[in-house]
Design goal:
Length: 75
């Protein structure tokens, strides 16, 4: 997977991971992939819903050492 940009939102509470993700996504071209790192436990539901509502594709998500990682392809 080709990652175009990485957003570090670790330590930030809702809604900041979404705010940072949205801002970073605006810099990408359609089809590019954004990687997001966050420690916010609500981010799984938030980012899944946000990606779907924005026409983006949540490619996958993983959890490692209390850090949630998401890969979203811009629609």
């Amino acid at each position: 997977m080709n990652i175009t940009k990485v957003v570090d939102a670790k330590g930030l509470a809702c809604p900041m991971p979404i705010v940072k993700t949205k801002k970073a996504m605006n810099d990408l071209e359609s089809g590019q992939v954004l990687e997001i790192h966050t420690t916010d436990k609500g981010a799984k539901n938030d980012l899944t819903a946000w990606a779907k509502s924005g026409g983006h594709e949540l490619l996958k998500h993983e959890e490692e050492n209390d850090v949630f990682m998401f890969w979203i392809r811009k629609g």
